[in-house]
Design goal:
6 helices; 19% strand; alpha+beta; 156 residues; 5-stranded mixed β-sheet; 37% helix
Length: 156
């Protein structure tokens, strides 16, 4: 479990990473410097045979890679993590000018969210044998099993 806190740290500014398997169930933690921000997983309900951990770029992305790619995009639609980032880190700091630009369609919250993620956040990940293991590890991380405690945005 310590790989989720002490393992290699990958910057969203350098996404996509060849280190993330194109097909894998897994768990990830997201960090803002030393602050544990979020814990997530991909592969819920998947069996071991549904995923083969690979880094081959010709393989259709599935699982962990697609989840991290979604987060890196900054698009809030269908991505709860990006909604949390926008609501908790972007909206509170909007200037009246930015609010006006958003209202006028000259600035998009998704653009601000992507910029924030790429500038400030990094991630670690752990490959799991199937969705059941990934869910169990994610719940433990959200409940505070890591020395960093519970994640800021989605604690259990």
């Amino acid at each position: 479990m310590n790989v989720l806190q002490d393992g290699p740290l990958f910057k969203f500014s350098e996404w996509p990473s060849d280190q993330v398997p194109r097909q894998a169930a897994g768990v990830y933690t997201i960090w803002r410097e030393d602050d544990f921000v979020y814990a997530g997983m991909s592969g819920r309900g998947a069996q071991a045979e549904d995923f083969v951990a690979r880094t081959d770029k010709t393989q259709k992305a599935l699982g962990l890679w697609t989840r991290l790619n979604s987060h890196a995009s900054g698009r809030r639609s269908g991505d709860q993590f990006n909604v949390y980032i926008c609501d908790r880190f972007i909206v509170p700091d909007l200037t009246p000018e930015q609010q006006s630009d958003i209202g006028g369609g000259r600035l998009l919250l998704d653009q601000l969210t992507k910029s924030y993620i790429r500038k400030h956040l990094s991630y670690r990940f752990q490959i799991c044998r199937d969705g059941s293991e990934a869910l169990s590890v994610e719940r433990a991380a959200r409940a505070g099993i890591l020395p960093a405690g519970r994640p800021y945005l989605n604690p259990l």
